[in-house]
Amino acid sequence: MTDDDRKGSSRFAKGADKKVDAMIDAQQLTEERYEQGATWSAVDLDPFKRGEQVVDPPKFLVRKDGRSLIYPGRPHVFYGESESLKSWAALEVCREVVAEGLTALYVDFEGSEPSFVERCRLVGVPDGMIGGALRYVRPSVPLTAVGDAGVLARAEWLFEVEATSGVIVLDGVSECYALHGWEINKAEDAARFQRTFAVEGPATVSIDHTAKEAGRGVLGSQHKRAGLDGAEYEFRSRVRGGRGGESKAEVFVTKDRHGWVREWSPSNGFVGNLWVRPDGVALEAGGFKDMLDPRDDRRDAVVEFVRANPGASRRDVADGAGIGNTETGDALKDATAAGLIENRGSTTRHAWYAVAES
DSSP secondary-structure letter at 133? Predict the structure, then answer.
């Protein structure tokens, strides 16, 4: 924000503060009035009945065959373990948004400016749009702060939201919770997060972590998922190529409130392979050839365990490889198709052995 922008923000800070307070803190009187008033008034459904307001189909994060994952104006969640390419996918959404002539806002709770600029260039965002049509924010003051710092933070946030027409990315949900003093496992704080960052107009993408201790789903309270009026996607790392190499993650839809993505995705929710290559980022439909990639992390884990534990059962492999039951099934199929291991038991009682190299 420029000095002129800050001056303009200060002039409407009080009004902006009242407007934003209605969204951000369940403890404040403004939100108490909000909850007891407007939200219990009957909604005018006539515009929806006339078709003036509809749920638009997904438009961004376009797969090579034309399928899309991101709904305009709706909230989304990308979750997965570290290095599962979630942030790359979000930047690809930003690239597509600014290419359409819209604006994007990237709120980064855990990254840095040099990394952001470098990644934007690799994704294909023109330099003139980095910091322009695609704006970057690194918050250090919570929106719930008291005093002048809180007033200015809320005014700046409102200023950025009103300047954004396409998408807002919130990169680092856990860090955002920490900044605001919220607890990741409390339903009340999940509600505060959703209320704080609920916006009208642009889509939102919140980047979160996998709940390893729960064995599935996004980290923290299930209220995160229950209150999502858009779509949720899980990213599973498959190839880690590092700088200058190729990296791949499988992407699965795990919630789709409006059903457009579920309509064409298979029963397991697979929606594509996200590739990060030196020449850019691409979402591809995938196929059998992708299952045979020798760099696949799942295959490596399973083959290594079977070689060290000949005759292992399927359950032994799942426990020993540490990748989960469903993942183990996929990896066993991949490694078998590649001729690396074989089942010398029955279809119900597996006994896995490594195939001797010729």
Answer: T
Chain centre distance of CA 70: 11
pLDDT at residue 40, rounded to an integer = 73
State the Cα–Cα distance between residues 207 and 224, nearest whole angstrom.
12
Place of tokens 């959703």: 194
Instruction: Tell me the C-alpha distance between 86 and 144, whole Å.
Output: 27
Query: What is the average pLDDT score of the chain?
Result: 84
pLDDT band at 16 (very low <50, low <70, confident <90, very high): low
The predicted-structure confidence for 243-252, as pLDDT tens digits, reads as follows 889 999 999 9
Here the tokens at position 85 are 């390419």
Residue 170's identity, in one-letter code, is: L
The residue count of the chain comes to 358
- Answer whether 217's CB lies under 8 Å from 182's CB: no
Give me 257's structure tokens.
Answer: 């409130």
Q: Are 253 and 233 in contact (CB under 8 A)?
A: yes
Q: Is the pTM of this model over 0.85?
A: no
Q: Rounded to the nearest 5°, which phi and psi values hold at 7?
A: -65, -45
Pairing of strands 203-209, 247-256: unpaired
Q: Which two tokens stand for residue 198?
A: 């609920």
Higher pLDDT, 39 or 259: 259
Coil, helix or strand at residue 342:
strand
Q: How far is the C-alpha of 114 from the C-alpha of 255, rounded, in Å?
A: 33
Question: Whole-angstrom Cα distance, residue 207 to residue 176?
Answer: 10
Reply yes or no on whether the pLDDT at 36 is more than 90.
Answer: no
Provide the sign of the torsion angle of the four alpha carbons 208, 211, 215, 218, taken in this order. Answer: negative
Segments of 1-121 assigned E as strands: 60-62, 68-70, 75-80, 104-108
What is the Cα–Cα distance from 86 to 239, expressed in whole angstroms? Answer: 14
Phi, psi of 69 (to 5 degrees): -115, -20
Number of other residues whose CB lies within 10 A of the CB of residue 321: 23
CA atoms of 217 and 79, how far apart (whole Å): 8
The SS3 assignment for 229 reads: coil
Instruction: State the Cα angle at 108 between 107 and 112, rounded to 5°.
Output: 140
